[in-house]
TrEMBL record:
Domain of life: Bacteria
Organism annotation: Halomonas fontilapidosi
Protein name in UniProt: DNA-binding transcriptional LysR family regulator
Keywords from the named record: DNA-binding, Transcription, Transcription regulation
Gene3D superfamilies to which the protein is assigned, alphabetical: Periplasmic binding protein-like II, Winged helix-like DNA-binding domain superfamily/Winged helix DNA-binding domain
UniProt entry tagged with the keyword Transcription regulation: yes
Keyword Cell membrane found: no
InterPro entries referenced in this protein's UniProt entry, alphabetically: LysR_HTH_N, LysR_subst-bd, WH-like_DNA-bd_sf, WH_DNA-bd_sf
UniProt xrefs under CDD domains: PBP2_LTTR_substrate
Amino acid sequence: MFNARYFRTFITLVETGSFTHTARRLEMTQPGVSQHLRKLEAYLGKPLLDRQGRRFVLTESGRRAYDYALKLFAEHEHFRHSLDDDSLDSGECRLASPGSVGLMLYPFILGQQQMQSGLTVSYSFAFNAEIVTDVLSGRHDLGIVTEPVSHPELCCKVWHQEPLCLVVPADFAGSGLADLMAIGFISYSGGDGHAGALLRANFPDFRTMSHFPRQGFTNEVSMVLDAVARGLGFTVVSRVVLETSPWQRQVKELSLLQPVHETLHLVMRAGEQMPRRYVRLLEGYREQRRHERFGFGEVAERHQA
């Protein structure tokens, strides 16, 4: 007979690699874990593990059963959370974004959770491709990405924009492309695209980022200003990254005539309606950012329009 508990035990066993750790995590006895495995193997009619002393590896049937179990519980979680879509103040928020977005959005959502005890937050920091994959699989209800997504099973729409900032060491005295080229570029995932867009809009003689000496790279955007603060080069980041950086006093932003923005997109599974709790959180965050950048009243309204 089908029993979801057996699949849950099997998933935990694969993830921990240990009958003892599985029993401890699920608050079971070790014989109980073994019994669940035997009953699952009897139900499927296939051995799931190849035991090698105290260790084990998955059989081909075991790998397929594990993949199926993950999809099974992802669908279950998606269904369970869909039941409270209409609640403003309760339910789980399962979303993901790149680090550049989450540096400020995640603390904002945690603040809302403190005020609304019925909310729970599962927030993942990931790159665009991973976010899209996880939304498709049902692991996240909502993804925020920095590039538009075209997929028949997904809905993608523009949500918010943040200015890009040209950031240099605090003692940098130059102002032109030649001065920037002299100190070199510090990159990160997506950094070349951001820098190219901002420099192209403000320097008529700009051609390509490949002309700039590459002084370093990090896949964690929140750390890139550490290198700039040490005088190792310049970079271009979203204003959120600059405002939340512990090194913001050791760097400076160069003023430019033509603003360029990073556009953020919301990604959901096609045909689904965004729960009201997400709508309120996203609008609340955008309103906070408008107030922080432009203040209250008419100035904010003009920029909002």
